[in-house]
Specification:
The chain is mainly alpha-helical and 780 residues long. The chain has a domain at 245-509. It is built from 14 helices and two strands; from the N terminus they run αααααααααααααββα. It has helices spanning 2-89, 95-225, 234-237, 246-283, 295-305, 308-324, 338-369, 375-406, 420-453, 460-496, 511-532, 541-620, 622-635, 660-779, and strands at residues 640-644, 647-651. The chain has a two-stranded antiparallel ribbon with strand order 1-2. Helix 7 (338-369) packs antiparallel against helix 8. It is elongated and about 225 Å long. Residues 3-72, 137-196, 558-592, 696-730 form a coiled coil. Keywords: Coiled coil, Endosome, RNA-binding. It is found in: Early endosome.
Amino acid sequence: MASAELQGKYQKLAQEYSKLRAQNQVLKKGVVDEQANSAALKEQLKMKDQSLRKLQQEMDSLTFRNLQLAKRVELLQDELALSEPRGKKNKKSGESSSQLSQEQKSVFDEDLQKKIEENERLHIQFFEADEQHKHVEAELRSRLATLEMEAAQHQAVVDGLTRKYMETIEKLQNDKAKLEVKSQTLEKEAKECRLRTEECQLQLKNLHEDLSGRLEESLSIITEKVPFNDTKYSQYNALNVPLHNRRHQLKMRDIAGQALAFVQDLVTALLNFHTYTEQRIQIFPIDSAIDTISPLNQKFSQYLHENASYVRPLEEGMLHLFESITEDTVTVLETTVKLKTFSEHLTSYICFLRKILPYQLKSLEEECESSLCTSALRARNLELSQDMKKMTAVFEKLQTYIGLLALPSTEPDGLLRTNYGSVLTNVGAALHGFHDVMKDISKHYNQKATIEHELPTATQKLITTNDCILSSVAALTNGAGKIASFFSNNVDYFIASLSYGPKAASDFISPLSAECMLQYKKKAAAYMKALRKPLVESVPYEEALANRRVLLSSTESREGLAQQVQQSLEKISKLEQEKEHWMLEAQLAKIKLEKENQRIADKLRSTSSGQGLGLAQENATRVNAAGREEASAKAVPEPTHSTSLIGILTRTSDNELPDVESREDLIKNHYMARIVELTSQLQLADSKSVHFYAECRALSKRLALAEKSKEALTEEMKVAGQSISRLQDELTTTKRSYEDQLSMMSDHLCSMNETLSKQREEIDTLKMSSKGNSKKNKSR
């Protein structure tokens, strides 16, 4: 009953734990979604800021232009006022000049009216844009407030989960204490059973002596008369441990280390190539910062952004293969199980290349259809399309041969041993083909970049991106050449090392026999090591049990820490990938900022020169223009200030330019502080959940071990009871046999006594008859 209740409690706790784990996953997903939403809101805010800056610059230029036109109109009006009294005096002589002045005045009035209307329209547009910006800002503030409320709710849910975890931990600790008490009682019972079994064994010792003598005699007969030669059959010989060749293992590990270094260089070059290709799509033939790129290029960019998840596993698979080759193992194709993992990672990367190949070809066709594309550039694009197809085909060919080499470690009949050499030779040829394709791609892309740099519309961003792509293609070419030459130099050693195996054996029969052989090798090495070590003093049984509990708890905590370290390493790798991506984005943004600063400086120079011309005209008509300047100064609005969470926005006249850099720094600092705060909260929640999960996992393992020990003790009790009953049965049978033998002996003795009595009677009768005969003879 108690065990059933405990099982019911454990089932309930397991269900609650699964529910809490699911809720934790939902909360994590919600936090990730909120982070994505905040990033999208940041992008929207950046776009709105850019549009507002453009409108402010246009407004400043228009106000400056309007001031110039107003001054010009004032000058014309002054000239007209001076010419009117002269015209009255010389009415007859100046009729023609007055007509001309009136025509000019009407033309100027019409021009002035058009400028005034245009100024009003621009003022209306600026006011509407300002209102729209304020509306968007209010929406973003409300959305930020809702997100903060949701984050607080999520934190409350996390706190509730922590309280539930603590309650479950207390319950499990109580159950653990109860189980420990029960286990101690069971151990006492087991000790009593052992004492009883020892007594029974002492009773059976006499019977075993006779059987041991017969067993030794039979074993000597078997060893002398029935020998077994395991090298006669290949199935059995494959299980024999071969001679240890340390030089061969060190050579294979050195070769694997060199291959790992080459693969790491190749992976880095592939990552750079795909990343810079994605950046090039964003800026050519259409710059995404100015206009929207085509849906095809958007999809292609999205796929290229996922390149790290397909390229990084190649390095990891090669690292696992390198770590599996140690000094103590036997390295042949049947034992390199990790080669199958590397082959699977290569297959996933080839699927990625097949997925992006149609988009890449269509993207090159779209560049050819662009108005900026010349005939020479179109020819280079067609050559690159063919090169990309060849590159995918070479990778598929290479994956086919590597998959064949991985078959002997998984399927014994997948590849015959006679074909190993040809497959390795084809791998070397495929690597040389890959090197040739990369040389063609480097050559054609260099020509394409040279033609694009000569175009009048080529931007600095495009030139920089093309240079980065060329450097990554050059690194790919060098890496492919190094791998091809390295494999060609060692292919003969690979083919010769395939015969390394058990003595007088043709090959390993199957991966299972190779695995068994490795296990036997480890056991033999451990046995030889144990023979060399001096015997240590034995530990008492009670102390060993106590040490076992401590060891189990330490191993569980070590497993939990190892799992946490593995998770942190995965997070670090993801953060490194994101760091590389954002570093490239920062470089492009820096180039863009330099161009924008240069453009603003040019505009400021042009405005300063325009102001110099205006001052020269003011000196000519200083008295009449003073009143106009005062009226225009009164008409200019005072600077307005708007305070908010994202900084202080200030709009002034054309004489006071807005401090763009300080405002951008305020916005950047605010959002960076907010992001740091949210990430710290997220990391704290992750660490707490991992800590609680590790504690619950350790407690569940301890409970499972206690249950296992309980079951083992019950099984031992059952076995001891069965052995006791068996011994009792044997004793009863031996007693019966002895009683039967005694009864038979008593019967035999009775029969012998009867025969003796009969013989005595016969002897007596013979004596009597002999006496009677002697008396008769005497009487005669």
